[in-house]
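Researcher: Go.
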Amino acid sequence: MRINDDLTKPVIVHSAALEWTPSPTAGVDRRMLYRFGGEVARATSIVRYAPESTFPSHVHGGGEEILVLEGTFQDEYGDYPAGSYFRNPPGTSHAPASNTGCTIFVRLSQFRADDQTQIVCLPGQGQHAELRPGAASSILLFDDGHEEVRLEEWQPGETVTVSNERGLEFLVVSGGLSFGDDILKPQSWGRLPAGTSFRATVCLQGAKIWLKDAALLHPGVIKLPDETGGNDYERR
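Model: Structure:
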């Protein structure tokens, strides 16, 4: 399966308008934003867990990055309420679940082979970063020199510019933006190749946005099973 897999082109997806697609596990559905591969894939998705749903324990063969959007996501290591951000590097494993239901933003199999940093940032945690013009707050969630991840709040009516030298991916968490001819609402997702400017005007209720400044596909990204002949991989 190939969805928005041409990384040389800008893409915007209004994911809240997409139909939910069932995963192989009952009670876990997804909206696919980017996908390269079959059921085992390099992927970016919005995933919804119904109340009392569980997902089988699995190994993160290519790493997993999650931002909890709604509800509380859980595994055997703890509870992660809305606003939590965490990274599970290649080789880690867990058994996800949600007692009350939740919605999460997930990036799978997009880690570099040498990225072994495992972090958990609960709501409010992270390092305060320098504010760009138009921003009310900026929390640095992760920065290893290869990629930088932030969660920012932008002020109503402001025009905000984000530089883009390496590649840029973003998700509107709440509020809204106008970007070119698009109106971006909660769960609108975008990806811009390096050099494509990101200049947006914030709507009257303001906006919270997740930002990743990094190569859209790391040169050292872990290969998929079909690319290596292996099969110890994750599904979601």
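Model: The helical segments are 225-228.
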